Structure prediction request, 151 residues.
Amino acid sequence: MREAILIPLGILTALAVILVALYIRLLLIIKDRTNTALNLVKRHKIFLMEKAANFFGQESKGMAQQRGNGILILTDKGIFFEMWLPKKSIQIPLSSIIEADKTNSFLGKTKLRPLLRIHFFSERGIEDKVAWLIKDPDKWIFRINKIVKNL
Prediction:
């Protein structure tokens, strides 16, 4: 009877240890990706930062993209995004931004909250769009459009 209790208890303990190890690994990845983004912008003036922005994709890459969380930073040079998993970086110079606005969905995905959408010209001069779910899209829209207007 005692073995019947010890075996499941051992399995649950092993699972708990594995989950804690995975959680710690995830925290280390998040810290590393955040530090990478902050190092990229350390010489720039940071206007806004969202430490847990949910990336909805880039229009030119199509609908079969993976969404993911990461750090989103608006500086005096542009928008920088560093996704936690999978590793992905996006940099949009201010001079390439057309405008920022809100949308309720992007590439067929929605979260029932407004998304920040950035219209910009790619390096090839083609208009493109990206979107993120962030806490206060209105604040970002106002700031981005004000900066772009004054370029």
